[in-house]
Design brief:
The chain is mainly alpha-helical and about 290 residues long. The protein has a domain at about 35-110: Serine Threonine Protein Phosphatase 5, Tetratricopeptide repeat (Alpha Horseshoe), CATH 1.25.40.10. Helices cover about 80% and strands about 0% of the residues. The protein has 17 helices and no strands. Helix 11 runs parallel beside helix 13 (about 215-225), helix 13 (about 215-225) packs parallel to helix 15 (about 245-260) and helix 14 packs antiparallel against helix 15 (about 245-260). The chain is globular.
Length: about 290
């Protein structure tokens, strides 16, 4: 009888695994918990549950589940990269670097691990190592757009703006429908002082992603710096509709109001910006120029 019961149990586990793999039992069912206890399925279960939790914004639970997956399978490369992504999003660059590096040790051809580690190095200000990792990712996959975006931004931060524009243009060439590539190139053009091209690229970003707040804010600044402050006002107003009271946007609108001679509205925005972010230097300087106190 014992042998028959063991066979029956094994058959039951097999069909349970098939049903779960097909998504027939949902992501939070008791069946998942039962499957987690079955040898060979535990790490995958926690990894998949971590993915579900990450998608819903529960990064802390996802982090715990990726850690459990790694505990059960210390060579689970994707669990390391996903956990590293969460650490990086939390600003924990050192832990992110450790996980990305482990993933690369386990799989030296893991392209997204090099990009992730490049992002973590960029976050720490180690731009040379960041460029090296992005370059390795491009060597492994010359069509991997995030690597061009990452390296382009790193070059921008290093002040090598021509190299930045070249990388970001390559990203756009590979896929002309990614708003982030236009946004990043627009910022690079802005750093070069080419505000007309910046406006065009940032405009393309908002065309592709109408709720891209940062692109509206950056385009409004580009208009301001190009001497066309009035054209920037609708953009910054649109951005403030989406994120009311955001201090950097308030500062930008204050600068536009100041350029347009609307002193009272400028002072109001600068004061509101400083109330939320007291270190905004341009708002402090603007209030002094306008003869107003913070």
């Amino acid at each position: 009888m014992g042998g028959i019961n063991e066979i029956a149990s094994a058959i039951g586990r097999f069909f349970l695994a098939v049903a779960l793999s097909a998504g027939l039992l949902g992501s939070n069912s008791l069946a998942h918990a039962q499957l987690a206890e079955i040898e060979g399925f535990g790490a995958r279960y926690y990894y998949n549950r971590g993915n579900d939790e990450w998608k819903t914004g529960d990064s802390d639970r996802a982090l715990a589940d990726y850690s459990k997956a790694i505990e059960l399978d210390p060579k689970y490369v994707s669990a390391y990269t996903n956990r590293a992504n969460i650490y990086e999003n939390k600003g924990d660059h050192d832990r992110a670097l450790a996980d990305y590096s482990t993933a690369i040790e386990l799989d030296p051809k893991k392209v997204n691990a090099y990009v992730g580690r490049g992002n973590a190095y960029s976050g720490k200000g180690d731009l040379d190592r960041a460029v090296a990792d992005y370059s390795k990712a491009i060597e492994l996959d010359p069509r991997f757009i995030p690597a061009y975006n990452g390296r382009g931004n790193a070059y921008s931060s290093k002040g090598d703006l021509d190299a930045a524009v070249a990388d970001l243009s390559k990203a756009i060439e590979l896929d002309p429908k990614i708003p982030l590539s236009y946004y990043n190139r627009g910022l690079a053009f802005g750093q070069k002082g080419d505000f007309n091209r910046a406006v065009v690229d940032l405009g393309k970003a908002v065309e592709l992603a109408p709720k891209f707040v940062a692109a509206y804010g950056s385009r409004s600044r580009a208009y301001l710096l190009s001497g066309e402050a009035a054209k920037g006002l609708p953009d910054v107003d649109k951005a403030l509709e989406m994120v009311p009271g955001e201090p950097n946007l308030l500062e930008t609108r204050g600068l536009i109001f100041e350029a347009l001679g609307r002193k009272g509205e400028a002072i109001s925005d600068f004061r509101r910006a400083l109330a939320k972010a007291p270190r905004l230097q341009k708002s402090k300087e603007a209030l002094q120029r306008l003869g107003a106190v913070p």
